[in-house]
Amino acid sequence: MAHSNGDASLEIGSAQQQLLVSEKLHLSGMRCAACVQLIEFRIRQLPGISAFKINPAFHRAEISWNPELLTLKRILAAITDLGYGALPARQSPDAMEQKENKRALWRLFVAGFAMMQVMMYAFPAYLVPVPQIDGDLTPDLDKLLKLASMIITIPVIGFSASSFFASAWRDVKNRHIGMDVPVSLGILLTFFASVWATFHGGAVYFDSAIMFVFLLLGARLIESRVQKRTTVALNILTQLSPAMAQRFVAYPQAQVEAVDVAVLQAGDYVMVAAGEHIPADGVVISGDSYCDEALMTGESLPMSKTVGSQVLAGSVNIHGALVVQAKQVGGATQLSALIGMMESASLEKPPLVLLADKHASRFLIVILLLAFVSGMVWWQIDPDRALWIAISIIVVTCPCALSLATPGVMSATIGILARNGVLLAKPKAIQVMASATHIVFDKTGTLTMGRMQVKEVLPVDDLSISAAIALALAGKSSHPVSKAIADYLVQQKSNQDVADLSNIREVPGAGIEAEFEGKIYRLGNVEFARDLHAQDIAIPAGFAGQTLSVLANEHGSLLWFALDDILRDDAIEAIKNLKSKGKHILLLSGDRFDVVKKIAGQCGIQEAHAELSPAGKYEIVRKLQAEGATVVMVGDGMNDGPVLALADVSVAMGQGAPISQSRSDVLLMSNRLLDLDFGMTVASKAYRLIRENLAWAVLYNLLAIPTAMCGWLEPWHAALGMSLSSLIVVLNALRLYWVPQPISKPIYLTQD
């Protein structure tokens, strides 16, 4: 009975999983980490919500829910009730963004204009005191200037600062303290205390309130501009897939209909005209053209496409029209996988960033308590100054700088790397790459082009049957060596039928085996063949220094293949640059010792290990980590999967096997090792900027808090200091763009 109930529970759980609906949303109005926490907390409380995660860098969210318990309209209403904007991702946010930008500019203009005017009225009070202390400013004129300043300040409080008040009220109403709570307190307390002083005597700080609003609005406007600049890479990615496709009504009939790409299904036939983006991963049925696949494969040159060629969604058809049968559509395409990878990268945060966000949210409560306690203490010392000192503490220590210290650098890093063909799957890679001590390279497809070519063939037995068996085996593997052998044998028309292969098994890093007519055959490296044959298999004379593959059975070798690979044109320079950064370089390969030694010598790599199994590579990296090394592993191919998963940061080549890409933290879509060197440089610079920003934010607050508590800061000093502190960390993030860009190469993810 218990077993039956368990099965029933599994079936119910499976049925609920099938009911879930997913959607992506555009969000607006978020200012800090507290905003993200508030929205995520409230939405996850709604019935039927399965998952909800916000990407603060791109102002987007991913949500999954049960449509029987909840509607999208209710979800959007829940977000807007919190005071934020929300739209489904399929609707363009341009109108919402334009309206928000226009309103932000008007708020800044009103605050800036009022600041210039009120300074004219405040200036005489600073220079010529009132008659009570032998000044030339009469009491009537002094009050008139204060009244004029108050009138000018009212539009700033009512319009320019309204976004701060709305956000603060939303946070308080939801029992949540965000960044705008101390901001609003500082503005309102300064304004109303100055209004009181206007009619009852005392110093006024209308100029400080307006300056605070103007500088904070300006800093946030600059922050939003920087953020849009750094998110261009993902925006371009999402625009690569066309919105509409020309689908055949009944292929091969010529009639086509324009349909939304979202409704395409696997098996549909689509017409792709010259100059259009291909809407799905598929195969060419008719036509002859060239496609630009630089983003997807790293190939800088257009790739020829004829009948039977594979095409990728997002690539551009350059010349003639193509008829394509869709194989993978929607979220199953390679383009969707890349978009998902980048979005996931921007959702996650390195450990240092998480630590900063955690303390930034707690810092708000501490500041309010400090301001209250300081105000009470000063009330006993000098009641006239108590309120102004409390206000100064709230304003000067507003944690804007602490909250802005990392997001700008992170989004800039992701965007810069993506534009140079380096896609981050996990942002922890930034922090680890910056502190990496060892970089480990695979050989085939990594330091070399991975485009193996058969240079020489030596048959030991009947060539025709051996070649046919080798072709059948090679066709079952995606390894570069197998592909090269298969291409060579196809050109030699080795097409004898050996379709009755059975018990096919591929051994990563070794080769592939199968049964044919009761015998076991192996195609792979020499050691793999020797394990099948009891006696040693001698390497033919003249094959030294070349990559070898041998077809063998239990009786011995049958067919030898000598292959050659080409060293990447930037490998030597990239290795030299990485060594100049103090990185220890290792080469781990499953190829023969003489081949590995040759490649290592060309690249200047002093430590190289040859004839390694995947377990051997794994053990070497594990030993390095046990000794305290931080390891970056760069690999290509199925046999690199385990060691890529073990490394502190794993880098897969864009042309590599899917299993190596799926286990990687970084995807080198450009397939250029100099871009990896550039990525290491950018990661180091980014990590240094994050630490600089955090250090500045902490140092600023350590100096500002005691200074304000001692009464040495006027409110206008506090406003200026806080705003400039926020502006400094935002502008400091822009220094990342000073890193010299790679030259003499195509730039990826850039608009024309």
Notes on the structure:
The protein has about 750 residues and is of the alpha+beta class. The strands form 5 sheets. It has a 7-stranded mixed β-sheet with strand order 14-26-25-24-15-22-23, sandwiched between helices.
Task: Explain briefly what this protein structure is.
Helix content is 52%, strand content 18%.
Indicate the topology.
Elements (H helix, E strand, L loop, with lengths): L1 H18 L1 E8 L4 H12 L4 E7 L4 E6 L6 H10 L3 E4 L5 H34 L11 H22 L1 H12 L6 H21 L5 H25 L1 H9 L3 E5 L7 E5 L8 E4 L8 E7 L1 E4 L1 H4 L5 E3 L4 E2 L4 E2 L4 E7 L5 H14 L3 H31 L1 H14 L3 H5 L2 H13 L2 E3 L3 H7 L3 E4 L1 H5 L5 E7 L3 H12 L5 H12 L10 E6 L3 E6 L2 E6 L1 H7 L14 E7 L2 E9 L6 H10 L3 E5 L4 H11 L3 E3 L4 H13 L4 E5 L5 H6 L2 E5 L4 H5 L3 E3 L4 H37 L5 H19 L19
Parallel strand pairs: 15-22, 15-24, 22-23, 24-25, 25-26
Antiparallel strand pairs: 1-3, 1-4, 2-3, 5-6, 5-7, 7-13, 8-11, 8-13, 9-10, 9-12, 14-26, 16-21, 17-18, 18-19, 19-20, 20-21
Helix pairs in contact: 4-5, 4-8, 5-7, 5-8, 6-7, 7-8, 7-13, 8-15, 8-27, 9-11, 12-13, 13-26, 13-27, 15-26, 16-26, 18-19, 21-26, 26-27
Task: Looking at this protein, list some descriptive labels.
about 750 residues, alpha+beta, Alpha-Beta Plaits, Calcium-transporting ATPase, cytoplasmic transduction domain A, 5 domains, seven-stranded mixed beta sheet, about 20% strand, elongated, disordered N terminus
* Helix-strand makeup class: alpha+beta
Q: How many structural domains does the protein architecture include?
A: 5
Number of DSSP helices? 27
Terminal Cα separation, in Å?
Answer: 66 Å
- Strand arrangement, major sheet: 14-26-25-24-15-22-23
**Measured on Cα atoms, how large is the radius of gyration?**
33 Å
* Strand portion: 15-25%
Overall shape: elongated
